[in-house]
Write a structure and sequence with these properties.
23 helices; 16 strands; 589 residues; Enzyme I, Chain A, domain 2; alpha/beta; TIM Barrel
């Protein structure tokens, strides 16, 4: 009799899939280690260079296929990242350096990439730490070509299955079809991993970060992937399977209702209107956001424009990219955040010869302070591009990591100089473009009224505000249990920031993860926040949740919550509020 288990992971693509397990080997292939004599080292170098060329050709072929099919545009960015790694002279020279020391080609690849991966694993930034996955996947491709294994496939299943693997590569997604791949589970990965991005683009139920999945699950095991709660049920008994099947049917009905609600405005039952915007990073996100009924883009992150680059994007490239997003939103407002880089980020982006990481990168040279002190010309170029594209649509500039009025005034002076330079160059731009400040450090929340005197809007970034308020590194597993957005101190800082904006007649929005959580979205609305920005996929759920609420009741609940003394008390009140409003649908929130 097969063992029944319930394993926990990270939900990255909602839905419930039921089917047999199919294990896919995706680990690093075994590489032989041996010494190469001096008279055979040139031959070994040639073998390595041919494998590099073959790997580049494979990436190019996949890139062409994706472009022709016009599907999963996110894959193009990932493939470009892999291409840039393969073309990087540091990879070529680093591996060849080991061959010249007498290492065989496979051993040289393993040795060099292990050193690079070790650097990424020590980074504080979650996005950059996940970039090690790109390096590992490139390494696997390179080793498979050296060993003559070619590319293994996830295609050709005679019947529907649930895929289980340590991880999946971007090329795998081209072969994952809804007819044969019901869902997938990975042993590695996080919310910011490429696996998560791919799962969302496929709309296939997926759970990542399931420890021991490839060891504890056997070929053919009956699986239930709960992408809503991040659970994996292995060989459930008849009664449990019946319950999960019923839950799957209810979820399908629930999702259909969510999508139908996209045509309705976001408003409470008593008519209070809320603007629901989207947080985006790619142009394809903008297209999806509009389909899901976003009122606009509340946060367009621009860091990806500087990642995986050999050279910096010039002003014209930035204008073209921003123009695509503005066009995709069809005249809806687009808020573009200036590059939020620094700390560990610059060491692996385009700042190859400078290091400002400091002892604690999270408290160091990052965000607006990095732009003003380290990369003024790069920042100036981005401001010019933003002002120019503002003449073609409703565009707003959002400034990250502002801690006080002096920083803000320095940026505003730079904006004025950018306008003067555009006039001299005879270029069209928006002279009255709205400029806003992020509120993501406690000092900004406490000085919100003073900041509001200088800007056109405030946007509260709850992720960092929670981290800095509670002195908790949200990426440190040892203190993760202390990262609590519902902590009374965090909620009171949000209330202070909101009051500061209201006092000066300046709109205040929230663009952090709290906005996409039904409990907190309801609370923020009750507190008086009328504009929320979230991942596009969260829009239908938040819209439907708010449409089940009564604004007068939300304001009363918010008063009680803001007087709460503990996180547990706060969360209890919010859970009960949601349970009463959503009834049977509560289990899917």
């Amino acid at each position: 009799m097969k063992t029944m288990m319930e394993l926990a992971g990270i939900p990255v693509s909602p839905g419930i899939a039921i089917g047999p397990a199919h294990l896919v080997a995706r680990g690093m292939p075994d590489a032989p280690h041996y010494c190469v004599t001096s008279d055979h080292r040139e031959e070994e170098e040639v073998r390595l260079l041919l494998a590099l060329e073959q790997s580049q050709q494979q990436i190019q072929a996949i890139h062409q296929t994706v472009t022709q099919q016009q599907t999963n545009p996110e894959l193009l960015y990932i493939l470009d990242a892999h291409r840039l790694i393969l073309e990087d002279s540091m990879l070529r020279e680093g591996t060849l350096g080991y061959v010249r020391k007498g290492f065989n080609a496979e051993w040289a690849v393993v040795r060099y990439l292990s050193e690079v991966i070790a650097v990424f694993q020590q980074m504080d930034d979650a996005y950059l730490r996940e970039k090690r996955t790109d390096i590992e996947q490139v390494g696997k491709r390179l080793l498979n070509n050296l060993l003559g294994h070619g590319e293994d496939s996830v295609a050709g299943f005679p019947s529907p299955v649930i895929l289980v693997s340590e991880e999946f590569t971007p090329s795998d997604t081209l072969l994952m079809k809804h007819e044969t791949v019901l869902g997938f589970v990975t042993q590695r990965g996080g919310r910011t991993s490429h696996t998560a991005i791919l799962a969302k683009s496929l709309s296939i139920p997926a759970v990542v970060g399931v420890r021991g999945a490839t060891v504890r699950i056997e070929q053919g095991d009956q699986l239930v992937v709960d992408g809503v709660n991040g659970l994996l049920h292995v060989n459930p008994d008849r009664e449990t399977l019946a319950q999960l099947t019923h839950k799957q049917e209810r979820y399908h009905t629930f999702r259909n209702r969510l999508l139908e609600s996209s045509i309705h405005p976001a408003a409470t039952q008593d008519g209070h209107q809320i603007l629901l915007n989207a947080n985006i990073e790619l142009c394809s996100d903008a297209v999806r956001a509009q389909k899901l009924g976003a009122a606009g883009v509340g946060l367009y992150r621009t860091e990806h424009l500087y990642m995986n680059r050999v050279t910096l994007p010039d002003e014209e490239e930035l204008v073209r990219t921003f123009r695509q997003v503005v066009s995709a939103m069809n005249s809806l407002p687009v808020t573009i955040r200036t590059m939020d880089v620094g700390g560990e980020k610059q060491t692996k982006l385009f700042f190859k010869h400078r290091s400002h990481a400091g002892v604690n990168p999270a408290l160091g040279m990052q965000g607006i302070r990095f732009c003003l002190r380290s990369e003024r010309q790069v920042f100036f170029t981005q401001i010019r591009a933003l002002l120019r594209v503002g003449s073609e649509g409703t565009v707003r500039i959002l400034l990250p990591m502002i801690s006080g009025v002096p920083e803000l005034e320095e940026v505003l002076q730079m904006v004025e100089r950018a306008k003067e330079s555009l006039i001299r160059d005879g270029l069209n731009f928006d002279p009255d473009m709205a400029i806003g400040s992020m509120v993501e450090v406690p000092s900004a929340a406490l000085c919100a009224e003073q900041l509001a005197e200088k800007v056109d809007f405030l946007s509260i970034g709850t992720n960092d505000l929670t981290q800095y308020t509670l002195a908790v590194d949200r990426l440190d597993e040892s203190v993760a249990y202390l990262y609590e957005p519902g902590h009374p101190a965090v909620l009171r800082l949000i209330a202070i920031a909101l009051a500061g904006g209201v006092a000066k007649g300046v709109p205040v929005s929230v663009c952090g993860e709290m906005a996409g959580d039904p409990k907190f979205a309801a609370l923020l609305t009750g507190m008086g926040i009328d504009e929320l920005s979230m991942t596009p996929g969260c829009l239908p759920l938040i819209r439907r949740t708010l449409r089940k609420m009564d604004y007068s009741q939300l304001t009363e609940t918010a008063k009680y919550v803001l007087n709460g003394q503990t996180t547990q008390e706060v969360m209890g009140l919010l859970e009960e509020m949601l349970r009463q409003a959503c009834g049977d649908e509560y289990i899917f929130h």
